[in-house]
Amino acid sequence: MSDLFSIFGITEEDINESKSNKKQKKTEEKKDSKKSAKKSSGNKFKLPVKFCGGHLQHVFGADEEGEWSEDELKKKIREEFRELAGIYFKLKTIELEEKEEGVSTYVKPEIVYKEITDEEKLEFPLEVIAGKDTLWQDTKISIEEIRSLWVKEHPEYQGCKFMYDEKQKILVPYMEATAAIGKTYTLPVTVGYLDIKEVYTEDDLGDEEFTEDTFRQLYSKEHPEFAGCSFAYVESENLLFPIIREEKENDNKNISLPVEVRAGGFRIIVSPEDVNGKGEASLDEIRKVLEAEYPEYSKERTEMTYDKRHFVVPILKSSRKGLQIISERKDYKHDVIVDENQCEWRIESRPFGVFKRNLTDDGPVEFELTAPKIPWAIVEQTIELFRKNPTYEFAVQIFYDVEKRTYSIYVPEQENGRGHVIFQRNTEMEDKHVLVMDIHSHASFHAFFSHTDNADEKGIRLYMVIGNLDKPRCSFKIRAGMAGAFGEMTLADVFYMQEVYSDE
Predict the structure, then answer these.
(1) Rounded (to 5) percent helix, strand, coil in the chain
(2) In a 10 Å sphere around its CB, with 0-12 CB exposed, 13-18 middle and 19+ buried, how is residue 337 labelled?
(3) Residues pairing with 307 in the sheet
(4) Distance between CA 123 and CA 109 in Å, rounded?
(5) Omega of the bond leading into 188 within 30 degrees of 0 (cis)
(6) Which residues contact 168 (CB under 8 A, 6 or more apart)?
(7) How many CA atoms lie within 13 A of 3 on its CB side?
(8) Does residue 327 carry a pLDDT above 60?
(9) Backbone angles phi, psi at 313, to 5 degrees
(10) 128-151, pLDDT tens digit by residue?
(11) Would you list the DSSP string of 250-294?
């Protein structure tokens, strides 16, 4: 090939230079393409745009047509409002059914504040600014002193924090959500801050107590940017300070007490006296109160969920066998009694039977079946399913239909292996019927409850293992479980047996 190039007077240097030029051209084209894509990316806002930032309100592009990019709009906003010049924020479109005349688009800011922690950064004179309200300070004083001066003029800012803009030498006050979830408020209640306050009285709502949801809905009618907002609560003013930025609920978010905990067919009330007299508590503090009575609700195994109707639902997680569904059901009952020997007993009633345990003596779980015995045909059906692949572990569940007083077998979604099985709960199934028993196989191995089984099986129900599936005669183990404690049983205690099997 090189000989052919030499005939036409083309050297190897010419070839390499040509390749280099092509490569460079492609690189430049790629860069230009990326620049173009980057330039054209981002949201577009049809003009005119109304900026709804609580105390900061302005219509941009009132005399213009077309649209602005997000960067263009942010630039205009920062030029209009000094306090936003050095703050990072995102713009979110507000959807309204009815628009003001001359407004095409509504946006609100979701602001990310960064609290000043080093007072040495402050340079004086400086200015505290929130919209039209300002505080000028010539001489050097502490952040706490500045806060006191600001709160004296604006009491709704009690407990506020500050973000410092070094370039402009300004402090921007802001609030963080502190209002306890589910807290009730007695009228009159003030919602808002600075020049956007609304006072709600008995004339507006009556003389009942109301939660923050009530005031959020009322306030957002006049101030739509606060739909879905959080609140800070200033007790001395009985004032709810709305915060536009959306904050994720977490375990540290406090809940007003008393609150009802609904779990496993029973209810308990967590009151201030349960948490050292405090009027509110975090989800984890509430869980600890529950754990004192129900050890299975440990931190590692429990998810706590708050319902806006003001109750908490604890959900037991299973590291191996999925999720325990918590439901409020008829014929579910929890009791702790003291017998004539001063022994404390925990008793759990279910539609199919009663579980009890002597807590004082740390005794085994005792179980009495109150429903009809389970037909042995269900076990035979289970064995047939397990034997389709006797080298892997499988799982099924037995459900009880309270109305029909019949049992059925259910095969959940599962992941199977030679030494494990992980299956998921069916929420609809567990809401409709009563979960009686979990059954899993041990393949060709002898039936026994492993350490993993002991750690996992925390629910209040029956458990069974079937082993030696590669042999004509299987082996069985069955037990009653309650909060990580167990009591061994025989097959005849639970099943209507047509054929005699031994519990080996």
Answers:
(1) 25, 35, 40
(2) exposed
(3) 311
(4) 28
(5) yes
(6) 82, 85, 86, 127
(7) 0
(8) no
(9) -115, 115
(10) 999 999 999 999 999 999 999 999
(11) -TTSEEESSEEEEETTEEEEE-GGGGTT-SEEEHHHHHHHHHHH-
